[in-house]
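Final report, closing paragraph on structural work. Over the funding period we assembled a curated collection of sequence-structure pairs, and we close with a single example.
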Amino acid sequence: MAYSVTNSAGKVVDAVLTDLPGLLAIAVVDLNSGMSLASHSNSPAINPDTAAAYNTEVIKQKQKAMAALKLQGEAIDDVLVTLSNQLHLLKLTETGTKFIYLVVNARDTNLAIAREVLRTHAAQLN
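Its predicted structure, as stored:
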């Protein structure tokens, strides 16, 4: 367990674990630095802290593409990466300074429920 429930990021990780106990990994990430503020993994194959840094670049590159396309008034809500057996979901906060990185099993998880859980808990990070 790489989080403490004494800060908001740790509380969010704990709450998402309660709502989605079968998740594979989760991290709350600072978008500016790419550093994980709190994380947890139920899979030895997934290091959410390492993934946090790489997924920060995914979001930053999409923001650059949006700027190049001059998409005014648009903001990233979430990013979904669908793998053969996993879903990787990046949920940005309203302020756009943090995001929640979630990994779940594609066969065992309802995507709509996972998105709603992240939407609910991302509001605690603003």
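Strands lie at 25-30, 36-41, 78-82, 86-92, 98-105. The mean pLDDT is 95. We thank the funder for supporting this effort.
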